[in-house]
Amino acid sequence: MNNEKTANKNQSRSPTLEDVARAAGLSPMTVSRALNNPKVVRPATIARVMEAVNVTGYIPNMLAGGLATKRTKLIAVVVPQINNNMFVDTVQAIGDELALRGYHMLLCIVGYTPESETDIVATLLSRRPDGIVLTGIHHSSDLKRIILNANIPVVEIWDMTPTPLDMLIGFSHDKIGHAIGHYFLEQGFTRFGLICASDRRAQVRKKGAIDVLRTAPGSFIREITVPAPANMQVGRSGLGQLMQNGEEYDAIICTSDTLAQGAIMEAEARGMQVPRDLKVIGFADLNFAAYNRPAITTICIDKVKMGQQAANMLADKIEGYPIAESVVDMGFSLVIRESA
To answer: Does the keyword Lipid biosynthesis apply (predicted)?
Structure first.
């Protein structure tokens, strides 16, 4: 019975460095050097150690091994959500580019509340990442203090400010709103509905559009705020709310392509045709926008390039290379398609 208990105990125990040393026929110190500082160990010895690692199933403690070099090769990437593909292309590009530079990405989903972001980032930093990517520029004072105290490189994405925490690559949501407003005013429209997600960046785009639309004589503007994250269902219900009192609109401005897709579906369900009876515009040029029927007019952001540049800015700073620009404005483009 005692032997059985000992066997079960050994089976449940995680392999240790000493187990690897025994399997390789080497000292624990030599194994530690081979794993943590392979430049000072002969290739044949490294091969013996790696074979023993595979046999035992040992998982090296990268944090402990990184204490000497102060590197963990881990990059934390923080985004609000990935249940639609607003951020997916950027996250994928960051991960791919970091892998080319020898880093691993730790992805965290924090939602849209500053409190959640602060709590999760504080936990992430206990893992000693070499750097961190944050979405947006609006963070709690507690998070800013935590980041500054951590003293690691930071890249903020998907927004624009001349005073980032460290480095930034993004675009102006205010200017996007202005561009949408001017586009519709140039067509002579005066009646506008806006379906806007509740997150801060969407609200900035909405305000930018309204500031321009209000300059048109006799303009009628009605807005609906829907919960984040946006999806087709809330896009449909948003248009339903806008039209519940029989109002007519020239154009519907949506703060995402998913909201625009839902608005188009609701318009068609009500016997309307887009764009004949109603123009609809979205944001982000998501991968379905060009293939929707009608294809969705939208604002295009180069999401892949943003991710690639963010990853390289971070890796360059970690590795001591000079950063040409700490703030990069990627800009945006208006993509005119069938819906508007």
So the answer is: no
Q: Tell which wins on pLDDT, 57 or 316.
A: 316
* Lowest mean pLDDT across 125-139, 241-255, 312-326: 125-139
Both tokens of residue 109? Answer: 């989903």
Q: Strand 167-170 relative to strand 333-335: parallel, antiparallel, unpaired? A: unpaired
Task: Identify the burial level of 140 via C-beta atoms within 10 angstroms of its C-beta, where 0-12 means exposed, 13-18 middle and 19 or more buried.
Answer: middle
- H-helix segments, 57-128: 62-65, 88-100, 114-125
Per the omega criterion (within 30 degrees of 0), is the bond before 294 cis? Answer: yes
**What phi and psi, each to the nearest 5 degrees, are found at residue 87?**
-110, -5
Rounded to an integer, what distance in angstroms lies between the CA atom of residue 61 and that of residue 65?
A: 6
Q: What's the CA gap between 261 and 274, in Å, rounded?
A: 11
Read off the pLDDT of residues 148-164 as tens digits, 9 standing for 90 and up. 888 899 999 999 999 99
Q: Delineate the domains of the chain, giving CATH numbers in brackets.
A: 2-60 (1.10.260.40), 74-171+303-330 (3.40.50.2300), 173-300 (3.40.50.2300)
**Cα–Cα distance, 4 to 21 (Å, whole number):** 25
**Residues pairing with 171 in the sheet:** none
- Counting residues of the chain whose pLDDT is more than 70, the rounded percentage is 93
Calpha distance 133→115 (Å, rounded): 17
Which CA distances in Å does 158 have to 48, 80, 246, 315?
47, 11, 37, 19
A 10 A CB-CB count for 39 gives: 5
**Rounded mean pLDDT, 71-83:** 89
Amino acid occupying residue 336: I
Q: Which position has the token pair 């219900």?
A: 237
Cα–Cα distance for residue pair 44/75, rounded to 1 Å: 31
Pair 193, 253: CB distance under 8 Å: yes
Q: Which residues of 97-116 are buried (b: 16+ CB within 10 A; e: fewer)?
A: bbeeeebebeebebebebee
Partners of 105 in the β-ladder? 75
Query: How would DSSP label each residue in 241-268?
Result: HHTTT----SEEEESSHHHHHHHHHHHH
